[in-house]
Amino acid sequence: DIPSEQWAQVVEKTGGPVAYKRIPVQKPGPDEVLVNIKYSGVCHTDLHAMMGDWPLDTKLPLVGGHEGAGVVVARGELVKDIEIGDYAGIKWLNGSCLSCSYCQNGDEPLCHKALLSGYTVDGTFQEYAIAKAAHVARIPKECDLEAVAPILCAGITVYKGLKESNTRPGQTIAVVGAGGGLGSIALQYAKAMGLHTIAIDGGDEKRDLCLKLGASAFVDFTKTKDLVADVRAATGDGEGPHAALLVAAQEKPFQQATQYLRSKGVLVCIGLPAGAQLSAPVFDTVIRMITIKGSYVGNRADTAEALDFFRRGLITVPFKTIGLSQLQEVYTLMHEGKIAGRIVVDPTK
Ligand code: 8ID
Ligand code: ZN
């Protein structure tokens, strides 16, 4: 009883808006599964995709979305290791070739043939979505599909970024954009890993959320007179954090973050603001031995590990659920930086 038609949000032209309409339900190919999406998180990447912010074209028309949690309802003939009725998650990495040197080494996000959910293939802002069985996240049955949805991009990405930061328990990491979707979840993973966090974002709603989620300090970028000094002062010895996880969707912090890092600190860049450039003074970067790196989603093992933190109850996702029909309103609020935590959409409403 899979219907032939369904509700979806479709980007018909770059720049938007999204159109809420009926479209056909697709059939999975031999190595694919069809997932009945129960809930999908809305990531800032979905807004970048609609707006054409990046130097990589999307498919058009496009069904966005890449944080989809649901139930497998059909599978291709080659699929043997996931059953009809299993919980499954469709994440940003919809598929990869599995045989190139990147895939062989567990760097599947770097595969040149990677398929991207809600970008180069249709994603999770529809009732039924398709992904390669090899890449579908295996969601444990005891997980609540509504609360787990944001783990499928935000969770995996910040968990991987924290690993890339090379921090150890007891050290301090700054989370830039800490009140947003990725940031609020990053505070949780960092805490579970035994790190102190300095949350950086703007406004009282986000401050209250970050402190509630266990941040040791909050620095308001909209109010501070000297952000670099305030971040440094928030560490015990005034030397600054051992690392910074940069998940903001604006360019400014990419010019600033190395300045408040402690010597030998690591800047992990994750946010992808349109047309942004990184910059840092060469002299200071060299003599203080600063590392600057990028981090891009996660592989299948990172996915399973990030889900296991959630399963163990270590991660509280701050989310609010609304109907998929209201997606354009979510984008408006997101553009204005007004969403604390994550918005989750219900495709049946
Ligand atoms: O794999 C990846 N690298 C990856 C995966 C998923 C998402 C990258 N991303 C990218 C998205 O495309 C987006 O550019 O990470 C960025 C953050 O995604 P999000 O968490 O879904 O966005 P959000 O919920 O809008 O949160 C962004 C937060 O940044 C704050 C905002 O107030 C908001 O809370 N922020 C901004 I905009 N400018 C800031 C600044 N100067 C800032 N916080 C501190 N300082
Ligand atoms: Zn995302």
From TrEMBL:
One of its GO terms (cellular component) is cytoplasm. SUPFAM superfamilies: GroES-like (SSF50129), NAD(P)-binding Rossmann-fold domains (SSF51735). Its cofactor is Zn(2+). GO terms for molecular function: alcohol dehydrogenase (NAD+) activity; zinc ion binding. The keyword Metal-binding applies. InterPro entries: ADH-like_C, ADH-like_N, ADH_Zn_CS, ER, GroES-like_sf, NAD(P)-bd_dom_sf. Residues 15-345 form the Enoyl reductase (ER) domain. The keyword Nucleotide-binding does not apply. Keywords: Metal-binding, NAD, Oxidoreductase, Zinc. PROSITE patterns: ADH_ZINC (PS00059). It is an enzyme of class 1 (oxidoreductase). Its EC number is 1.1.1.1. Belongs to the zinc-containing alcohol dehydrogenase family. This is alcohol dehydrogenase. It comes from Hypocrea virens (strain Gv29-8 / FGSC 10586) (Gliocladium virens). The lineage of its organism: Eukaryota, Fungi, Dikarya, Ascomycota, Pezizomycotina.
